[in-house]
Amino acid sequence: MIRIRQRQQGYSLISIMIGMTVAMFATISIMSLYRVVIHNLFDTNSGIQQRAAQDRQLATGLLTIQNLVQGAGFGVTSPATNRQFILLTGAALNTVSGNAQLTTAGSLQSIAASSVSGNAIFWEINKTLDASWGCQGLLSDQTTKAIYFLTSTTSCHPVYTQWASQIWTVTRIVSPNTLATALTFTAFLDTAKCSPFGAEIASTALSTAISDDAGINTPSASTAGLKLQFNWSTLSGSTPWLSCLINFTS
Question: Which residues have C-beta within 8 Å of that of residue 209, sequence separation ≥ 6?
Answer without folding.
Answer: none
